[in-house]
């Protein structure tokens, strides 16, 4: 059968080429109009043949005028209704209506001419049966010709039929139906839609465009497999539904491919639907329902203000910059020490927010003189401090750098914000600062203590209006150096996927979700708070690895191995957002809480921080960590050379 199709394809291509058709993806308008005219000719002859007792005795010189008149009238209405304009392979009910109108008006015009001729000359040009037969055969012929051409194109002229995936679409919404139509009209085809899966039993045994609706009365993977299908398309809007998440995970566990499709309005008509239907990603499964934020409150905070973002080229910083652009700040100053990422960010911001007064500045937050020059020049109202060293193993090896950037850099910015009377200072911290087990987390905890105690001193002395706010959250999906990009690379390289421990768990948020909550917290803060975010359910990293391998189309521990390599220095099996002594208070936002950790001993904290910064200059790791442990008594090293300092 395949050989027959290939021969037909070659014959049709060669035939079409002789008519000047260089691309068999569509038929030129002149060729469509030519074939439509042939249908008119055929319809006239057929009507004459039937009305003359199935003989051709009518076919003489007296038939020439009615024949030419019928062809001419039909051609005029083809041109008026532009029946030749649409691509035949995308023919729809709209094209069918055009054909019906063109056929009807042609027949009605011939009826009028028939009546006029009767009044003037006393005779008919056409019999009434002839006109009825002509109209019927013309419309049916035009419609069937397009239907046949469409089928020939899809069955014969299209290459790579073997690569088409048989899929179901979840749901029977208007969007789902539109996606199905778009897929069926897409050439070359990537998918073949077998039907729809629906949870409403009332739709059972019904059809849409000839495609069945199957009731999800049993496990989805059983239903899909029993119909010899290997994939499922889910609309993006339905991905966050709890029932659908369970359905997706069930399909993934049974190696059924899952695709996500945007709403039909978001599909690029130039590139087609195939490009916009993507394999589902692990981020889609972990992402929760959209967060509701108070845009008006954030707008009041940002609009017409000078906003300063440190570490603006990083994962969190760049997303905060992106979200800030929507609120039309007076100026947006972005500081980072990484030249290339800062340059890339600049290009993106200028492309997306062409009217934004944007100032990218290459600078290190440890350089207080340079940072102060920026404060003096721009006088920022709101500061988002995202710059930090965050990789646990690296900071474990070089604690002097953790002190220099995470503590000294934060101290520089904290002091300057008050000196230049900034309205708000928002410090981005981490859950690793809670009961820290590594240098990185402990350095962020010291920075938290300095920021909070500094604010309390300002309040007590009434010397500055600056409000200091700290936000604390866990792992962010897709951030630089996070586990998800690492797993993706390892899977692409053929494995193994490495986890540190089979029992390790983590909380995850998406980058936009985390930054939205930071923006919301910064607008609600009155100063001195440490805000923590609802991170959702904990995720076992080995389960995450298994799902990502299956999403990539492989079988865990068969195609791609999972290998435990042991906990890294300073790494916990689980992270915490609170220590045992902390108390949380709710806010008006269900996902944001305040940690009650009031530190008002600024003089002592400031003295210890200054001593720590001086000690860090000596690069003696043991001395540095000893001093950090004195400042943060709850800091207990895990799986680290510094454990001996806890005895």
Q: What would you say this structure looks like, in words?
A:
β1 (165-170), α6 and β2 (191-198) form a beta-alpha-beta unit. The protein folds into 3 domains: 2-157, no CATH class; 161-280, Rossmann fold (3-Layer(aba) Sandwich), CATH 3.40.50.720; 295-643, Rossmann fold (3-Layer(aba) Sandwich), CATH 3.40.50. The chain contains 22 helices and 22 strands. The protein is α/β, with parallel strands linked by helices. Helices cover 48% and strands 15% of the residues. It is elongated.
How does the SSE layout of this entry go?
Elements: H1 2-18, H2 29-51, H3 64-81, H4 93-121, H5 128-157, E1 165-170, H6 174-184, E2 191-198, E3 207-208, E4 211-215, H7 220-226, E5 231-235, H8 242-253, E6 257-261, H9 273-276, E7 278-279, H10 282-286, H11 295-302, E8 306-310, H12 315-325, E9 331-336, H13 339-352, E10 358-362, H14 368-378, E11 382-385, H15 392-397, H16 399-419, E12 424-430, H17 439-461, E13 467-473, E14 475-477, H18 483-492, E15 497-499, E16 505-506, E17 508-510, H19 511-524, E18 530-533, E19 539-540, H20 541-551, E20 562-564, E21 583-586, E22 592-596, H21 602-616, H22 621-631
Parallel strand pairs: 1-2, 1-5, 2-4, 5-6, 8-9, 8-11, 9-10, 11-12, 12-13, 13-18, 14-17, 15-20
Antiparallel strand pairs: 3-4, 6-7, 16-19, 18-22, 21-22
Helix pairs in contact: 2-3, 2-5, 3-4, 4-5, 11-19, 12-19, 14-16, 16-17, 16-21, 17-21, 17-22, 21-22
């Amino acid at each position: 059968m395949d050989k027959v199709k290939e021969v037909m394809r070659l014959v049709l291509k060669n035939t079409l080429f002789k008519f000047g058709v260089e691309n068999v993806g569509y038929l030129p308008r002149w060729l469509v109009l030519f074939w439509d005219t042939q249908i008119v000719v055929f319809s006239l002859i057929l009507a004459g043949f039937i009305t003359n007792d199935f003989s051709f005795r009518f076919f003489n010189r007296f038939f020439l005028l009615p024949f030419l008149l019928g062809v001419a009238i039909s051609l005029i209405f083809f041109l008026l209704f532009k029946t030749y304009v649409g691509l035949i392979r995308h023919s729809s009910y709209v094209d069918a209506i055009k054909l019906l109108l063109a056929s009807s008006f042609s027949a009605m015009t011939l009826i009028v001419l028939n009546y006029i001729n009767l009044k003037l000359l006393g005779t008919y040009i056409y019999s009434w049966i002839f006109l009825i037969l002509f109209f019927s055969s013309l419309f049916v012929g035009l419609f069937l010709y397009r239907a046949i051409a469409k089928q020939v194109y899809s069955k014969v002229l299209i290459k790579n039929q073997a690569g088409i995936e048989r899929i179901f679409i979840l749901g029977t919404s208007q969007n789902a139906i539109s996606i199905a139509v778009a897929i069926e009209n897409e050439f070359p085809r990537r998918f073949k839609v077998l039907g729809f899966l629906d949870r409403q039993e009332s739709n059972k045994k019904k059809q849409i465009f000839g495609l069945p609706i199957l009731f999800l009365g049993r496990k989805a993977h059983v239903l899909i497999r029993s119909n010899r299908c290997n994939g499922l398309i889910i609309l993006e809007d339905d991905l966050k539904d709890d029932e659908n998440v369970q359905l997706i995970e069930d399909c993934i566990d049974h190696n059924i491919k899952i695709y996500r499709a945007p709403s039909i309005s978001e599909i690029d008509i130039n590139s087609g639907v195939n490009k916009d239907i993507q394999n589902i990603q692990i981020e889609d499964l972990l992402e929760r329902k959209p967060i509701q934020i108070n845009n008006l409150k954030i707008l009041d905070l940002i609009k017409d203000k000078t906003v300063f973002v440190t570490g603006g080229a990083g994962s969190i910083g760049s997303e905060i910059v992106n979200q800030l652009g929507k609120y039309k700040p007076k100026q947006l100053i972005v500081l980072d020490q990484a030249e290339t990422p800062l340059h890339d960010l600049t290009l993106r911001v200028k492309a997306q927010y062409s009217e934004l007064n944007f100032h990218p500045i290459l600078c290190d937050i440890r350089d207080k003189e340079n940072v102060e020059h920026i404060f003096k020049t721009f006088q920022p109202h709101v500061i988002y401090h995202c710059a930090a060293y965050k990789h646990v193993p690296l900071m474990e090896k070089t604690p002097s750098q953790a002190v220099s950037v995470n503590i000294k850099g934060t101290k520089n910015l904290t002091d300057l914000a008050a000196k230049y009377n900034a309205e708000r200072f928002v410090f981005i911290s981490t859950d690793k600062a809670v009961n820290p087990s590594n240098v990185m987390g402990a350095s962020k905890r010291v920075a938290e203590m300095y920021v909070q105690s500094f604010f309390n001193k300002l309040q007590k002395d009434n010397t500055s209006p600056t409000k200091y706010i700290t936000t604390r959250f866990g792992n962010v999906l897709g951030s630089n150096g996070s586990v998800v990009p690492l797993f993706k690379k390892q899977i692409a390289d053929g494995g193994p996927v490495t986890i540190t421990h089979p029992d390790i768990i983590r909380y995850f948020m998406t980058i936009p979700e985390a930054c939205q909550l930071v923006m919301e917290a910064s607008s609600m803060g009155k100063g001195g708070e440490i805000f923590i975010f609802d991170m959702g359910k904990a995720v076992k990293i080995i389960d995450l690895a298994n799902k990502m391998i299956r999403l990539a189309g492989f079988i865990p521990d068969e195609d791609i191995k999972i290998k435990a390599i042991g906990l890294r220095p300073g790494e916990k099996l689980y992270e915490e957002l609170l220590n045992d002594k902390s108390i949380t208070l709710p806010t008006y936002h269900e996902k944001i809480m305040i940690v009650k950790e009031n530190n008002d001993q600024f003089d002592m904290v400031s003295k210890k921080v200054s001593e720590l910064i001086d000690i860090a200059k000596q690069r003696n790791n043991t001395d540095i960590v000893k001093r950090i442990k004195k400042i943060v008594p709850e800091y207990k090293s895990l799986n680290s050379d510094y454990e001996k300092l806890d005895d």
